[in-house]
Design a protein that fits this description.
Elements: H1 14-30, H2 39-52, H3 70-83, H4 85-104, H5 107-119, E1 124-127, E2 143-146, E3 154-165, E4 172-178, E5 188-194, E6 200-205, E7 214-225, E8 229-230, H6 236-272, E9 274-275, E10 278-279, H7 284-312, H8 319-344, H9 354-363, H10 372-385
Parallel strand pairs: 1-4
Antiparallel strand pairs: 2-3, 3-7, 4-5, 5-8, 6-7, 9-10
The structure holds coenzyme a persulfide.
Length: 389
């Protein structure tokens, strides 16, 4: 049984505790046997199930005045991740994909798309990365030019996007492209591109160690109407960064869910397996691992819910807090899971064992939505900029 005492921390309100309990019960019932044989079908089914049962309503705010509740997102991600990595992925991408619309979209964009992503009727994707600009977002080369003679009524997008989660199954992609108002970061814009757009194609499916729908996409002569632009032209970089400020904290939360599962599995093992005539957990070296795991988990949780609470309480920017939460929680979860594998011995690397799956699942979280190395750059910049010149 996972430790739930953290729900009594002052970051949470009664509604958060109730939601976490209800989702845990739901997940135990619905996510015990997620079939990974066809990840596209599995993801479609998970989005549909999460939508039908109301969980996706939390992935983006419903009404315009409503704000995204990062504590709720984080609690949902850590709970889903504890039960199923793919279910967490399905939930997370609905939030990240719809994020630019919910944070910066017009009323019309919100009314068209959010009811669909919140009910699971449309699958969302966030198409930012390119082969040569994953960490260096300002270097994006995909272009969007005005259709017609510079003042046409739409845009034509050309380029390639890489590492796009839900690539191939999404109904809506948020595509970041260069519109050229200024060099670098100030010359990007964000667009809504429908999956059915004839200018959009999957050129490669990418297989990874923890499989999920992932693709390289091409945009060729991809026409979108003027209303597809999110926010102001030239604001794309800030839209991407502000969206990541919200969702990076929740990547940390997913890592926390994986780490909690690893500790739960290790506690079961330590109390049931006999070694040298006593339970494994009687060995001080195993106790050392368990102490380290519990400490890493609490430290990660404190950073995650600090960042989430700070944003929910109205902070304009949580760049530093979110970067710290993602960096610490993902790195800590990797260490926790590695210790879980060690405690499980041979079973820890047996295909199909929960800790073997966790060992594969955690690795990408230290890379996507800003690699650990980038988070250090972000934290250092924030700390340095706080020094008065
Ligand atoms: N929120 C709002 N605005 C932001 C912001 C944020 N979190 N971060 C930066 N900005 C603004 C800056 O204030 C700056 O605005 P002005 O030009 O008006 O001063 C502008 O955006 C450019 O910022 P900066 O100079 O920091 O840009 P860099 O190109 O140097 O950014 C890093 C470098 C590494 C920080 C950035 O590219 C990054 O976060 N990369 C990782 C991206 C990522 O997560 N990739 C994974 C893809 S999603 S799976």
């Amino acid at each position: 049984m996972p430790d739930k005492t953290f729900l009594n921390w002052p970051f949470f309100e009664e509604r958060h505790k109730a939601l976490a309990e209800k989702l845990d019960t739901w997940a135990a019932k619905n996510l015990a046997h997620v079939d990974h044989a066809d990840v596209d079908a599995a993801c479609r089914a998970l989005v549909s199930k999460l939508g039908n049962d109301g969980w996706l309503e939390h992935s983006a705010p419903g009404a315009e005045a409503e704000k995204i509740d990062v504590r709720t997102l984080a609690l949902i991600r850590e709970t889903l991740a504890r039960h199923s990595g793919l279910a967490d992925f399905a939930f997370a991408m609905q939030g990240l994909g719809a994020g630019p619309i919910s944070l910066f979209g017009t009323s019309a964009q919100r009314e068209t798309w959010l009811p669909k992503t919140r009910s699971g009727k449309a699958i969302a994707a966030f198409a930012l990365s390119e082969a040569a600009s994953g960490s260096d977002v300002a270097n994006i080369t995909t272009s969007a030019r005005r259709d017609g003679d510079g003042d046409g009524d739409g845009y034509v997008i050309d380029g390639e996007k890489c590492w796009i989660s839900n690539g191939g199954i999404a109904d809506i992609y948020i595509v970041f492209a260069r519109t050229g108002e200024a060099p670098g970061a100030r010359g990007l814009s964000a667009f809504i591109v429908e999956g059915s757009n004839p200018g959009l194609a999957v050129v490669e499916r990418i297989e990874v160690i923890a499989p999920h729908p992932l693709a390289r996409l091409s945009l060729k002569n991809c026409r979108v109407p003027a209303e597809a632009l999110i926010g102001q032209s030239g604001d794309g970089f800030k839209i991407a960064m502000a969206t990541l400020d919200v969702f990076r904290t929740t990547v940390g939360a997913a890592a926390l869910g994986f780490a909690r599962r690893a500790l739960d599995e290790s506690l079961k093992r330590a109390t049931s397996r006999q070694l040298f005539g006593a339970p494994l957990g009687d060995l001080q070296m195993v106790q050392g691992h368990i102490a380290d795991m519990a400490l890493e988990i609490d430290a990660a949780a404190l950073l995650i819910y600090r960042a989430a609470w700070t944003k929910d309480k109205g902070a304009a920017r949580v760049t530093r807090e979110a970067a710290m939460a993602k960096l610490y929680a993902t790195e800590a979860a990797q260490r926790v899971i590695d210790m879980a594998v060690q405690i499980h011995g041979g079973d820890g690397v047996r295909t199909g064992h929960p800790v073997e799956a966790l060992y594969r699942e955690i690795r990408a979280l230290r890379i996507y939505e800003g690699a650990s190395d980038v988070q250090k750059v972000v934290i250092a910049r924030a700390v340095l900029s706080s020094v008065e010149q």
